[in-house]
Amino acid sequence: LLKNKSAHIIVSRGGYPVDGGADDIGGYLQGVLNYIGVVDTESFSVNATAYPDAESRLEETQSKILEFFS
Length: 70
Hints:
Blueprint: E1 6-12, H1 25-35, E2 40-46, H2 54-69
Parallel strand pairs: 1-2
């Protein structure tokens, strides 16, 4: 359907992901994008945003995103 398109997936969770669990929204979105022809994807995720040290996790992910786009 689509050609020469790219997508960036950014996922945030209040807790920690369960390996192979139903909360893997990033994998689901990547599958949907691949299905419609968007195969050039990059994923970023930040977990445990409901925990007291969430600020450091957010800053770390933000640094990764900024580094990717620079």
